[in-house]
Specification:
Elements lengths: L1 H35 L17 H24 L43
């Protein structure tokens, strides 16, 4: 019966897809941990833009291991691990962060949004 063959083929494909989905979910959870619990003492290294050289990848991997160890240590001690963006941080000193250096990514004179265009 051809229906039996289709079902068997479908059953064979589902576990492979399920494994891929599970692996992708694990990677996404690790990315979320990286963002949520990134050490406040370190300069943030983006996961999603730039820096695909071997040194940056190595630093990310070392930080991932450190974050995992911090999560395990916090769980073992019964304490919650403080998230990177905790509301109790107060105002952050952004003077050393080159992302917030003088200048903007868009010139106000070229702004086409009426909320940011100061020529109106």
């Amino acid at each position: 019966n051809s229906n039996c063959v289709v079902l068997r083929m479908r059953d064979a494909v589902i576990p492979a897809q399920g494994t891929e989905v599970a692996e992708q979910l694990t990677k996404l959870k690790e990315d979320l941990e990286y963002v949520r619990f990134f050490p406040k003492t370190e300069k943030y290294i983006s996961l999603f833009s730039g820096g695909e050289d071997a040194e940056t990848i190595d630093r990310r991997n070392r930080l991932r291991k450190q974050i995992k160890a911090n999560i395990v240590a916090a769980a073992a001690s019964g304490k919650d691990l403080e998230e990177t963006g905790s509301e109790d941080d107060g105002l952050l000193d952004l003077s050393d962060d080159d992302f917030f250096a003088a200048g903007t990514s868009s010139d106000e004179a070229d702004a086409d949004d009426e909320l940011t265009d100061k020529s109106i």
